[in-house]
Amino acid sequence: MSRLRCMLRGIDIRICIVLLIAIPVFMFGIYLHGQKITYFLRPLWESPPKPFHEIPHYYNENVTMERLCHLHGWKVRESPRRVFDAVLFNNEIDILALRWNELSPYVTQFVLLESNSTFTSLLKPLLFAGNRHQFKFVEPRLTYGMIGGRFKKGENPFVEEAYQRVALDQLLRIAGIEEDDLLTMSDVDEIPSGHTINLLRWCDDIPPVIHLQLRNYLYSFEYHVDNKSWRASVHRYKPGKTRYAHYRQSDIILSDSGWHCSFCFRYVSEFIFKMKAYSHTDRVRFPHYLNPKRIQDVICKGADLFDMLPEEYTFKEIIGKMGPIPHSYSAVHLPAYLLNNAEKYKYLLPGNCRRESG
């Protein structure tokens, strides 16, 4: 007992109090901001991916296709290749309308697969099937498929995503795709520009697989993030070899080839559904992230829905992108269908951040 009393006398009671307060506060801070800390320290353990070989993109509506192919180092064909545009559909009705109207003059067959399950095994309505009447202009060229979800709770969402992409491979064969046809692989909101697809279908000697560099937007065309969207790709189809995927498949990328408008929804309810439904569901760390008022405030500020730091590989790029996205008031070189129907799609244009509740 005397030895214990000596030890207690040697401990400053103030230090004990500070430790009793500081340790729980520190642990709570880690709980709240652990993901931010991890993202900020990412450059310490993860190197940037291998850079793409970027092909300059030449285009002007007054330049002939023969000249444009020549500027890219390719020859012009006697007739264009057939083009198949294939997508997995979730709930992006408006963005799908922009996409298909942009690509319609150049696409031979539109291929769309819809499931009654999200990647996170949530039951969802067949929204395309219910709105199919809006897309009569592509009906003669549409191959539509529906696949039932497996609804395996607790499974990694990327497993369900891969399952649906395999089903899309089968749907492409049903659509009649053949060797050397062009196949676009991209999410609905990754929209190649029409003149990009027209260039690739008319030019010979293009790469077997080429990624498309897209202008990256968030919430609408008011928030231009960067020009680093690269997952969209175009393939010269090879039976038995080409597989529908959404990851890097080539080291070649064509500059300035379209638009990626992520989380570009009309209704706040659509934001909530997407946040709960897509593969990165772990990013919804707290229930209040789904609060409609919070979501509306985040959209108008150009902030991050998940309160995350930028996913970059250098401290310079992380720090440079911290904070809200600057507002852009340029609506130059956006999809023609969007501008021709500006009243209907006003929420996608600069200066219109307020969303309908839905």
UniProtKB/TrEMBL annotation:
Transmembrane ranges? Answer: 12-32
Does Transmembrane helix show up as a keyword for this record? Answer: yes
Task: Look up keyword Transmembrane helix and say if it applies.
Answer: yes
| Pfam families in alphabetical order | Glyco_transf_17 (PF04724)
- Per the UniProt entry, what are the Gene Ontology biological process annotations, in alphabetical order? N-acetylglucosamine metabolic process
Q: Name one GO molecular function term.
A: beta-1,4-mannosylglycoprotein 4-beta-N-acetylglucosaminyltransferase activity
Single GO cellular component term = membrane
> InterPro entries under this entry?
Glyco_trans_17 (IPR006813)
Give the record's keywords alphabetically: Membrane, Transmembrane, Transmembrane helix
Name of the protein in question: Beta-1,4-mannosyl-glycoprotein 4-beta-N-acetylglucosaminyltransferase
| Species name | Gossypium armourianum
